[in-house]
Request: fold
Amino acid sequence: MLAAAHEALKWYIWVGFIASILIAIFTTPQLIQLTKTRNTTYINIPMYAIYLIGCFCFLIGGVLMLCGVGAENPTWSQRLSSGLPLIIAQSICGVISAIIFVWKIKNYAAAKRAQITELQYCHQLKSVYDEYKRKIHSLSHHEKQTVENAEGK
Reply:
């Protein structure tokens, strides 16, 4: 009987870890698209603000579960199965979402300062980035090393 309960707990832990990996992957496509396009106009500030608050609350809940708060004499296995997957998932999601959120706020503020729309600002930013990539691509190997050394300093 005890062995069957232990096996069920192992299964439960793995389900939690699989869920944490899937939740962590959830925000990655948005970051990849943002990196490629440099376009933040489709990102909703209130949605990401609320999502970040939710991530933070889940992270606190996971830490409390790991510490055994709210349960009478939880075993380490019970603590790990409930708290650790939540902590991992929300830490990864929180970091990725915070990067996206800061990027959005930065572009939004820069567009307001330039008195243009955010879409116009993102297009300008993308064209500058593309021009830089074209210039680097057209340089000889020796020139590329010189540029890389200068950027590294």
